[in-house]
Amino acid sequence: MTVEPRVAEALQLVEDGATAASLESARLDFKTVGRSRTDSATDLAEAAACFANATGGCVVVGVADRKAGPAAFVGTDLDPDRLQRRIYEVTSPPLIVTVEELPWAGQRLLAITAPRSPEVHQIKGKATERIGTACEPMSAVRIAAVVGQRRGDDWSAADSGIPRNAIASRTVDEARGLLAEAADAERRRWAELSERDLLRRLGLLTPAGSLTNAGNLLLVADEARPLVSYVHRRARSGELSTNQQLTAPGLTALLRTFELIENRVNGTPVNLPTGQQLFIADLPDLAVREAVVNAFMHRDYQATGMVQIEHSSTRLAVTSPGSFVLGVTPENILTVSSRPRNPALAAVIRKLGLAETAGVGVDRMYAEMVKVGHQPPTFSGDQHRVSVTLQGGAPNTAVTRFAATLPEDRRSDPDTLLVMLALLGKRNVTATELVPRLQKDDGEVEAILLELTTPAIGFIERTRESAQARAGVYRLRDHAIAALGPAVTYRRRVGDDTDRKVTEIVREAGQVNGRMVRTLVDVDTPTASRILADLVDRQILVKTSQAQRGPSVTYGPGPLFPTSRPRRARAKREPSDD
Q1: Per-residue pLDDT averaged across 435-454, rounded?
Q2: pTM of the predicted model as reported, rounded to 2 decimal places
Q3: Which of 119, 143, 110, 101 is nearest to 56 (CA)?
Q4: Chain region(s) in the chain for CATH 1.10.10.10
């Protein structure tokens, strides 16, 4: 059989000394068989159904997950055809998997591959789904939601049975106001349409003339239907300064939420290299709006609860009822292409200009946070809720200025900005190191890094040692380090002159301290400290004193201290006129 690359890679890592348990994931599991073949087959059927109910995956049978090296491969004598038949028999509805023999490390293994299924499969009346490395039980509500999504059901497009005359007049005015400010002339013209025609253009009326669920949610007042809980604290753990529940109509609640957050966000003026002055909020407005709108747009409206917003001066956490949309996880949310849970509702919100076009809202959140020097948003979730947290604060003005100098198409590009962010705290990076951050594979990340070395962008470069390698090691260019200034938490030495001066004085005096470096290369105290820390990091110097701070801290030769003086190139003699 042809082994899937991810399975072969994991098996090789186990053979090389890793434990199988450390390599299990949302798509891969390792199992051994017990004494009872019947019980083992049922256990394996449960594992396969767990994958099929989620995003699909592979169960490798015959590998002990707590052992490492060749000892982990214990093998199995289960018959693949009988096992495949047993899995089909004990699952409801029956689950079809492939079971293939897989020889490895002198043992016979089995690989059970279960693709994502359009159904939810149960065993003995119970269903589970793979979340991370565990199989979590699925409630009846969760099963219904998963089946509905896989069948393409759209709750927001269904007929609510609510007549058009139930609409709150102010919500129509709010919709007209948003459309009047639209970027394109066509949508601006919609603001002048009659109410009926406007609702039709927005897709909020059924053919029978009643409101869709999206129309009822957005436009009909209902004091008994709280949609948003907003809590503000002056400090993250301090007393509440605001605690409000916002009820339907949803459009009014959404606009009111924006207003509550905006009124409690501080800002910092930043002068760009162009001379333009920007007022940068501690929590970027576009990132905030996308976080709130995404929660409102993608939440599960068949589950109880409200969108909960916890806000402090430098942090915003937004939690919405319902799990991630099928196929979306915190590990792929930046790159995955997914179908919205409520397509009709999402379309209306985008037509009103309250959200980015399909598929780029998360990109916008990442870009807006990173280009002012903040960490990207963090996502978490389970079967019942999804949360996104923005950690803000005063912008890093050096990062903001530098981002403004990038080519226009790169200033809001998450990949470009995430590479920059990684290199603020690390001297060099590789594609493999950036894979989790960019949520792309090694080849894609390598291509991105190479593109960022081109003259048109050119703020990173390959190190000399990796210039000809297939996979490079990348660092900031000198001009980028200078432009980013204090945002860079280290300092790369430019050329070898400083190294040479410091090593020569150590060779002559036996040691060096910060005061000597300041005098030697004419720098301030922080820069001298960074020079010494850099030399220690590269093992050229080692600390030779017990003191931790001040002029009594001394350094001597380290393991990689040059044993001889470097040769200086002799100046080329110019031809004489004689």
Answers
A1: 95
A2: 0.72
A3: 119
A4: 406-483, 497-557
